[in-house]
Amino acid sequence: MYRQGALEVEALAGVDLWVKPGEFVSIMGSSGSGKSTLMNILGCLDKPTSGSYILDGIDISKTPDSKLSDIRNKKIGFVFQSFNLLPKLNALENVELPMIYAGLPKTERRKRALEALDRVGLSDRIKHKPNEMSGGQRQRAAIARALVNEPAVILADEPTGNLDSKSTFEIIDIFRRLNDEGATIVMVTHEPDVASCTKRIVTFKDGRKINDENVTGGNN
Amino acid sequence: MHLGENIKSALKNVLSNKMRTFLTMLGIIIGIASVIAITSIGNGSQKEIEDRFDDLGVGRMTVSMRSNSPRNMYTSDALTLDDYELLKDVRGIKYISPTYQANYYSVKLLDPKETNTAQITGVGADYYDIMAPELLYGEYINQENIDNKSKTVVITDTTAQKVFGYCDESVVGQQISIKSWKGSQKFTVEGIVENPNAESEMQYENEYPESIVMPISTAQRLFGQKTLTNITLVAEDPDNTDVLGERIVAMLDNFHNTSEKYTCESTTEQLEAMNEVTGTVTLLISGVAAISLIVGGIGVMNIMMVTVTERTREIGIRKSIGARNSDIMFQFVVEAIILTFMGGLLGIVFGWLAGLAAGAILGMESVVSVDSIIIAVAISSAIGIIFGVYPAEKAARLDPIEALRYE
Question: What is the pTM of this model?
Answer without folding.
Answer: 0.71
